[in-house]
TrEMBL record:
GO terms for cellular component: membrane. It is found in: Membrane. This is NSMA3 phosphodiesterase. GO terms for molecular function: sphingomyelin phosphodiesterase D activity. PANTHER family: SPHINGOMYELIN PHOSPHODIESTERASE 4. Keywords: Membrane, Transmembrane, Transmembrane helix. It comes from the Eukaryota. Its main location: membrane. InterPro entries: Sphingomy_SMPD4. The keyword Transmembrane helix applies. The keyword Transmembrane helix applies. It comes from Regulus satrapa. The chain crosses the membrane at residues 713-733, 739-757.
Length: 765
């Protein structure tokens, strides 16, 4: 096709692949396309959209002619859209010289994008656009075609080895025509307007094919990265009338929007973080001679040097803060947690291999990472405090929640990491230095407009000032820093350790309860109510469904997490012992179940805030039991409702007919009297009714000796009777014989229970 025809169909083709911006057109639905369920479509889509595939060749073909395509500003993320509509230039140089007035009769502002930018804009925004696409099977985000394409583009345009492959030229040896005249753009004001953007230098002013290929490769890398950072959505903009040292936190609140990332969204951002660590760590060692450095360093190497602090750090910090504060308190937070932990450990993606050791000792964090830790101090300290506050509100008995606490504790317990974080805090807390205003402004605004090569900050040797610059640029000059190793956070860690101990005891209690329940399933217990059935006092946990293996895992995770927390914060054995004693102050007579934390008053027990937390999260509970007449308690789920009502009428008739005879039998002092008293009376209920007028109104009229037939309405009793009759018929025993056997067996059971509870008296045998 001719370029004119390709130019006409390009926007339609992009929309057909990635879907429309309003979400009505689904497109190829790359986020749900997986090789396991649709192998043919999956492989075709990946081949077609590959960096060297037909679609990208079309992009480069149109790129050579400097075509422009309009992208509506209204579909950009909220903060960026608000900034542009207020005629304030976003800090991201991606938007420089691209915003245009609407054409005659048009509505809204547009971005005039070249083909590569237009393609990548749609690719990036398709992740955060909600679409109504029917999904008939479970979709694993990390196996989707979209996730694989993100990984492929990152490896191609941000390579850890070699350089970016140059785009294929459709006119070898020729020159790319000059760009067409641009329509006037909206007048913007920004800190970085006077800087020359590398992006503008290589896109707004297209170089010839004979230009330096190393410089030409960088604009694609920068464009891809800025669009990947667009996934953070919480972009930051600065106003011309704002403070020169305006913090990201303040700017965030100036342009905030209601936005909840999805788990798929977080996984893609984590993929970007991991790749950028590998990309940055592939930087070649600097030459000893500064002059040699200035002549040998390529644009790609310079890009690796500043890629994380310039493009990622600020927006990722805000993105993580948003997730920590708004993500539901459930196991899905694991995706956010792993993204955070991936950023905190750049050494995991370093090219050097760890030394082989015969002992599986944890790898110590090298001192060369001290600068990274200090320049990302808030990522380690403030977000750790945020995680503590989340952990204190979650159910640590759940294996998935216990695993998250274990993962964080294990990462921060790596040898030498806590010491380097403490050193960073000490540098921040050093007395302020008197700094000239212009230098202060430059260092307090690390993400100035323009590209990374436009203005490099002078080297700052003062490590303390670097840490202060990092903290104040993200949180503002008025930020009250909370020390990770201070007394306040240490108290939070002690509270978490106490909850870990309580969760371990709760898990053990659930395990013991399950074992006791299995052991109590004897044959004769099928004919009587058990305590848990009648009272309904036991409330289950997800451990009941997952079994003993999960209980064991929970205990292991919590035990190791507690051990790591003791290493990080130097908790002594005396503190742990005192904490363990506090955990066991409210045990019942069996020493297994604990009451919620409460204080005694003249009006009875009053729940403390800790006690309310324990009840809400199922860590502790009051033993609630049915206190009234067992004959009048609600019909249970394991009972036949019709039989309950029928047997109640029958037992009421028998009790009215034989009340005097039962009274005489229960008044005897011999074995028969004890047998009747045990099975026909309820002295505990009489004792409760004596002191409770409420119970007196809710019990039946006959509180003396009486017959109760309700146990026959239990499904387990009915199944047992059917099994006995079936076995009897197998041995040719008739119904009369079966009934006789059942009555004899129940009589023996009653005698045994009488001896067990009433005591054995040989002279009355």
């Amino acid at each position: 096709f001719s370029l004119k025809e390709l130019h006409g169909i390009f926007p339609w083709l992009v929309e057909s692949i990635f879907g429309s911006l309003d979400g009505i057109i689904v497109g190829w639905n790359l986020r749900c396309l997986q090789g396991r369920t649709n192998p043919n479509e999956y492989s075709v889509a990946l081949d077609f959209l590959d960096p060297s595939g037909p679609m990208m060749k079309l992009v480069y073909k149109l790129q050579a002619e400097e075509y422009r395509y309009d992208f509506p500003v209204s579909y950009l993320p909220g903060p960026v859209k608000a900034s542009i509509q207020e005629q304030v230039l976003p800090e991201c140089s991606l938007y420089h010289n691209k915003v245009q007035f609407p054409s005659s009769g048009g509505l809204g502002l547009n971005l005039a994008l070249n083909p590569f930018e237009y393609y990548m804009f749609y690719f990036a925004i398709s992740l955060i656009t909600q679409r109504n696409s029917p999904v008939t099977h479970h979709v694993s985000p990390s196996n989707s075609a979209y996730f694989i394409l993100v990984d492929t583009y990152l490896k191609c345009f941000l390579p850890t080895e070699g350089s970016v492959l140059p785009p294929p030229s459709s006119n070898p040896g020729g020159a790319i025509p000059s760009p067409t005249p641009r329509s006037p753009a909206v007048p913007f004001s920004s800190y970085g307007m006077h800087h020359t953007s590398l992006l503008k230098r290589h896109i707004a002013h297209q170089p010839s094919v004979n230009a330096d290929p190393a410089s030409q490769e960088i604009w694609r890398s920068e464009t891809l990265l800025q669009l990947e950072v667009l996934h953070y959505r919480l972009s930051i903009s600065s106003k011309h009338h704002g403070s020169p040292a305006q913090s990201s936190y303040q700017a965030l609140h100036a342009y905030q929007e209601s936005f909840k990332p999805t788990e798929e969204h977080v996984l893609v951002v984590r993929l970007l973080v991991k790749h950028l660590h590998a990309f940055s760590n592939s930087l070649k060692p600097e030459p000893l001679s500064p002059s040699a450095h200035s002549h040998t360093a390529s644009p790609l190497e310079e890009f690796k040097r500043v890629v994380i602090p310039r493009f990622v750090q600020e927006k990722l910090y805000i993105f993580l803060q948003h997730c920590f504060g708004h993500w539901p308190l459930d196991a899905s937070f694991r995706a956010v947690l792993e993204m955070w932990l991936s950023y905190l450990q750049p050494w995991r993606y370093a090219p050097e291999k760890p030394a082989q050791s015969t002992e599986p000792l944890p790898r110590s964090v090298s001192e060369k990472w001290a600068a990274f830790i200090q320049e990302n101090l808030l990522m380690y300290t403030k977000l750790f405090v945020g995680f503590l506050n989340r952990a204190l509100r979650t159910d640590l008995v759940s294996p998935k929640n216990a695993l998250m606490v274990f993962r964080v504790a294990k990462v921060f317990a790596q040898p030498n990491l806590a010491e380097m974080i403490l050193k960073g805090e000490q540098l921040f807390l050093e007395p302020e230095l008197v700094i000239p205003h212009r230098q202060h402004r430059l260092l307090m605004s690390p993400t100035l407009g323009g590209s990374f090569l436009s203005s490099r900050s002078p080297a700052v040797t003062d490590a303390s000032f670097k840490v202060k610059s990092h903290v104040y640029s993200l949180e503002g000059q008025d930020f009250q820093y909370k020390q990770m190793f201070g007394a306040e956070v240490r108290n939070l860690v002690l509270k978490l350790a106490q909850l870990i101990c309580q969760a371990q005891q709760t898990a053990k209690s659930i395990s013991d309860h399950s074992a006791e329940t299995m052991a109590s399933q004897s044959f004769f217990s099928w004919f009587r109510f058990t305590t848990s059935e009648v009272n309904g006092s036991y409330t289950g946990n997800d451990l009941d469904e997952m079994g003993q293996d999960s209980i064991k895992k929970t205990d292991e995770y919590l035990e190791k997490a507690l051990e790591y927390l003791c290493q990080i914060f130097k908790l002594s054995e005396a503190q742990l012992t005192q904490m363990m004693m506090k955990c066991g102050t409210a045990q019942d007579e069996n020493g297994k179940k604990q009451l919620p934390d409460c204080i005694a008053s003249e009006n009875g027990l009053i729940l403390t805030p800790l006690g309310r937390y324990q009840i809400i999260n199922g860590l502790r509970r009051f033993e609630l039991q049915y206190q009234g007449d067992t004959e009048l308690q609600p019909i249970r789920s394991y009972e036949n409702a019709a039989l309950v009502r029928l047997l109640f009428r029958l037992s009421s008739m028998l009790n009215a007919r034989f009340a005097d005879q039962m009274e005489v039998l229960c008044s005897r002092d011999d074995f028969v009297g004890r047998l009747c008293r045990y099975h026909l009376t309820n002295p505990q209920l009489l004792q409760k009714i004596r002191y409770s007028p409420v119970l007196r109104d809710r019990t039946s009229q006959n509180l003396g000796p009486r017959i109760s037939l309700r146990f026959l309405a239990s499904y387990r009793t009915l199944i047992s009777l059917l099994m006995i009759y079936f076995l009897a018929s197998w041995f040719y025993v008739g119904p009369v014989g079966c009934t006789f056997i059942i009555l004899i067996g129940y009589f023996l059971y009653a005698v045994i229970m009488t001896f067990f509870f009433e005591g054995w008296k040989p002279h009355e045998h």
